[in-house]
Amino acid sequence: MKILVTGGAGYIGSHMVARLGELGHDVVIYDNLSTGHDWAILHGNLVVGDLADRALLKTVLEAGNFDAVMHFAAFIEVNESVRDPLKYYRNNYANALNLIESCRDAGVKRLIFSSTAAVYGIPDGGGKVVEGTPLSPINPYGESKAMVEKTLRDFSAASDFRYVSLRYFNVAGADEQSRIGQAYDNATHLITLALRTALGKRDELNIFGTDYNTQDGTCIRDYIHVRDLIEAHVLALNHLADGGGSRIFNCGYGHGYSVREVVAKVKKITGVDFRVVETGRREGDPPALTADSTRIREELGWKPAHDDLGFIIKTAWKWEKLYWKKRESGEI
Ligand code: UFG
What we know:
Bound molecules: uridine-5'-diphosphate-4-deoxy-4-fluoro-alpha-D-galactose
CATH topology of the largest domain: Rossmann fold
Distance between the termini: 31 Å
CATH architecture of the largest domain: 3-Layer(aba) Sandwich
Largest sheet: 7 strands, parallel
Structural class: alpha/beta
Strand content: 15-25%
Helix content: 40-55%
């Protein structure tokens, strides 16, 4: 198939592009390189462009004759979205709308959307959510993604356009061959920050909140290896290519780890007893958020291969060490 991948130079997008290459698909990457890197593109042709540039999008989509679009390009910092909501509504919503309209104009009828567990906000009960759980985002990041989902739903209902929205839980880990991985300096994610602390790039790691109503007082999240997430996209692509209808799927393993458990595992794997400081809660953190992923397992036959926190951390650690080495030597 011929696929346009927006944000294909970023963390998750670059893993997708590499996998599409292995599967023999023809790929065009559309990325403004604001947070992505051209060295992370292991396959396909890069168009450096912004989703705000309607003229360029039109040219690329009309010339490409694409079978599907995979839309990864977005901002992802929850805290930043609270401080600067318009940045998120502009890029994550208005630019996604540009893309959807451009798909309509160019006759592209299949799209896979990178959504997020943040659309659920703070769920009731034990924190395990099914796709039918009402959307109740508590920050502009989650809201901007929920708005795209609603737009896709309504456009799909009104036309022959079909989409799959994948709600990512806590994506982590890196390519097993360490060719690509998280390469974002302003990363806010727990595993990345813990590893950077172990590596000495940061003085200490904060634990945000130890008074939650969870087994050890810290928040619980469903950490999913990037490679399993990518396989979910492959299945979603095949589903649409086979004529399947529009669907929404949670992407997580269905069980979680507390912040303390993650920190202990990172210390064990790296062998570094880095400094950890327990601080107050981070605003907007749900106590627990895990995926009920029955739907994607049953409907698409998703069988995760790396449901193992140790494996997630090991691949991320290997990558993190290599990444800083390459940066310091000027290779990237
Ligand atoms: N945490 C710390 N210290 C840190 C960083 C994080 O204690 O230095 C804690 C957070 O408070 C939270 C947990 O670790 O309890 C996980 O935090 P992350 O920032 O790694 O991830 P989030 O769960 O906040 O958010 C991530 C993505 C979102 C996505 C969400 C869905 O960043 O895009 O998962 O669950 F929406």
